[in-house]
Design a protein that fits this description.
Blueprint: H1 6-13, E1 30-36, H2 43-50, H3 53-56, E2 59-65, H4 69-78, E3 83-86, H5 90-97, E4 101-106, E5 118-122, H6 123-127, E6 140-143, H7 149-161, E7 166-169, H8 173-181, E8 187-190, H9 192-200, E9 204-209, E10 221-225, H10 226-231, H11 233-255, H12 261-272, H13 281-290, H14 303-315, H15 325-328
Parallel strand pairs: 1-2, 1-3, 6-7
Antiparallel strand pairs: 3-10, 4-10, 5-8, 5-9
Helix pairs in contact: 2-11, 4-5, 9-13, 11-12, 12-13
């Protein structure tokens, strides 16, 4: 059965061969490099690859893995990767302003009733009184880089509580985990597949939830080079169709849990090939299941959240004041929320 989405209709109107009907896909053997982090939140790409959704669209995909968001944005802009899924950062916004990158869809989002990103404290800081975000005044807060999503979340939490915090850039998630566990940094925010594992191991303490400060936060987006968005519509729409199918499968198995136990286990085993792949399945499975957050249906994008993020980066002087969301987002691909 052929399904036409809003994006598909736009592609057909532009004359592109959007949906393969029978036989060989229109984009047979088109090679793509997809940027990703080894997070459960990036599962849509992994599912689309493992279940052949990319291949069905004629896309020959390989993954390029990163340890932070901003380097991925640079790779997309330089052509070292074709598509990426990660948070909005100052680097991504600046690249968009220069005409090098475009956000084309939404991925991970905070949703009421579903466990989301956690606010964590080192055990040392927790024992000294950091038992809630209200006690963050004067404390250090870990970020990968200035202008990262961690920086944005930390600032929003601090503003809501009326406290001052200092940011400690540690470049990589692994380095942050080590610093938090050893008490070299006081606090951090992170997705639940990592946060719950750390708290469960009593390596750190939980002091709050990001959703209490940023409800409906568009945590990650799908983005590509401005050239792909403008000149490779058939390829870009094919990627988004496959990605959206992967997200739907993920939500059904681990968020809505409309699949039976066997279907849920199959999904966890698939994700384990990419997330906590260095751990035994029995150990990794719990963290993967605990880390399941909603991936936007049909890759829709919460433009209100995107606007808030752009406004914050501008207010902090991290990007040019002249930047607009129209520079960042290509609306011809986006299903608005």
């Amino acid at each position: 059965m052929t399904t036409f989405t809003r994006r598909g209709a736009l592609g057909l109107a532009g004359g592109a061969a959007v949906l393969p009907l029978l036989g060989t896909p229109a984009l047979a053997n088109t090679k793509l490099t997809v940027g990703a982090l080894r997070f459960t939140s990036h599962a849509a790409s992994f599912v689309a690859f493992e279940r052949g959704y990319f291949a069905d669209e004629g896309l020959d995909v390989e993954f390029k893995f990163f340890e932070a968001a901003q380097p991925m944005a640079v790779a997309i802009a330089s052509g070292d990767a074709d598509f990426g899924v990660t948070s909005i950062t100052g680097g991504l916004i600046s690249l968009a302003e220069k005409g090098a990158a475009k956000v084309i869809a939404g991925a991970l989002m905070e949703e009421k009733g579903i466990d989301g990103q956690m606010i964590l404290a080192s055990n040392e800081a927790h024992a000294a009184g950091l038992t809630s975000p209200k006690a963050l005044d004067g404390k250090s807060f870990a970020v990968t880089q200035a202008g990262s999503s961690f920086h944005y979340m930390g600032a929003k939490i601090a503003a809501a509580e009326g406290v001052n915090i200092s940011y400690k850039p540690l470049q990589k998630v692994g380095a942050i985990i080590g610093a938090l566990k050893s008490g070299q940094v006081d606090a951090w925010t992170i997705v639940p597949h990592i946060g719950k594992a750390l708290v469960g191991a009593k390596a750190v303490s939980q002091i709050g939830m990001v959703a209490d400060y940023l409800p409906d936060y568009q945590v990650t987006t799908v983005f590509t080079s401005a050239n792909n968005a403008a000149n490779e519509r058939a390829k870009t729409e094919a990627f988004l169709r496959a990605f959206s199918k992967g997200a739907a499968d993920f939500n059904a198995a681990l968020v809505d849990k409309t699949l039976d136990a066997a279907g849920q286990e199959e999904m966890v085993k698939l994700i384990h090939k990419y997330v906590y792949e260095d751990q035994p399945y029995e150990k990794a499975a719990k963290s993967i299941i605990n880390g399941a957050m909603r991936l936007n249906k049909d890759s829709a994008l919460n433009m209100g959240s995107v606007q808030d993020q752009v406004d914050w980066f501008k207010s902090e002087g991290l990007v040019k004041d002249s930047i607009t969301t129209e520079m960042l987002v290509d609306p011809s691909y986006v299903q608005m929320m």
